[in-house]
Amino acid sequence: MYAFNYQKAGSVADAAAAAAKSADAKLLAGGQSLLATMKLRLSQPSAIIDLAGVADLRGIKVESAGVTIGAMTRHAEVASSADVKKAIPALAALAGEIGDRMVRNMGTLGGSIAHNDPAADYPAAVLGLGATVNTNKRKIAADDFFKGLYETALGQGEIITSVTFPTPKRAAYAKFKHPASRFALVGVFVAETANGVRVAVTGAGPCVFRATALEKALTAKFAPDAIANVTIDPNGLNSDMHASAEYRAHLVTVMAKRAVAAAK
After folding, report:
1. Against a cut of 0.85, is the pTM above it?
2. pLDDT for 6-45, tens place per residue?
3. Domain segments of the chain: what residues?
4. For the structural domain made of 1-53, what CATH number should be given?
5. pLDDT tens across 235-264, in order?
6. Second-level CATH architecture of 170-262
7. Residue 180: what pLDDT?
8. Would you state the pLDDT for residue 107?
9. Which residues, in sequence order, are CB contacts of 26 under 8 Å at separation 6+?
10. What is the pLDDT of residue 1?
11. Following DSSP, what letter does each residue of the chain receive, concatenated?
12. Alpha carbon distances (Å) from 2 to 43, 72, 189, 193, 248
């Protein structure tokens, strides 16, 4: 690692003020992604602002319309929450499949979606449920938040404070995981919401995306057989030593069918 300045923020306002002082400052949430990239010298921030001490960024609040989860809430907290399991069981199940036990006890919701790794699980839930990302400056709809490879709609000094997930009629997440990292080679979150069927895919492309062909078929009939013959175009999908674009395209339909079958 290179040398950097470290500051532990006491509030969201403190963190925003500190981040505004340096164009390349980084916010430290769980550190599961940031510290790894710093060790590899892929990221070289001049300043680190630690959010661990900001109590307002943690917690889970369930209301009639949905669930709001603080940005610094750990994956393990979401996975074990009785309230989340009751309101949106698919969200709790997804959180319980992220990484390993250490990652789940250190990683945070806000850190995950701000980093926007192309194979991360949480972006699929945010996009699949049509969630709202709340920041210290505004509210951002899920469809407008994820912009590309490691890119989001967040501006300089903008901090995710929480995410509000609408309660779906039914939903589920299925992923084909890498055996070592447990990242999604392909993960599919399917939800029947008040505004229609949404299908979000992670791991297959440079960024999480909605599979509109699957959404259309499931709107007509919400059943696995309704999408059995839907083919996904492999053009633009990821291709690497773990899986070709064609294989990932095939997995999208397979994982979607499993998610639909499990949806409740």
Report:
1. yes
2. 999 999 999 999 888 888 889 999 988 888 888 888 888 8
3. 1-53, 170-262
4. 3.30.43.10
5. 999 999 999 999 999 999 999 999 999 999
6. 2-Layer Sandwich (3.30)
7. 87
8. 96
9. 34, 43, 45, 47, 48, 49
10. 65
11. ----EEEE-SSHHHHHHHHHT-TT-EEESS-TTHHHHHHTTS---SEEEE-TT-GGG--EEEETTEEEEETT-BHHHHHH-HHHHHH-HHHHHHHHTSS-HHHHHH-BHHHHHHHT-TT-SHHHHHHHTT-EEEESS-EEEHHHHEEETTEES--TT--EEEEEEEPPSEEEEEEEE-TTT--EEEEEEEEEETTEEEEEEESSSSS-EE-HHHHHHHHH--SGGGGTT-----TTS--SSS--HHHHHHHHHHHHHHHHHH--
12. 9, 26, 38, 46, 37
Fold match, 1-53 / 170-262: no
**Alpha-carbon distance 130 to 185, whole Å?**
22
pLDDT in tens, 51-106: 999 999 999 999 988 999 999 999 999 999 999 999 999 999 999 999 999 999 99
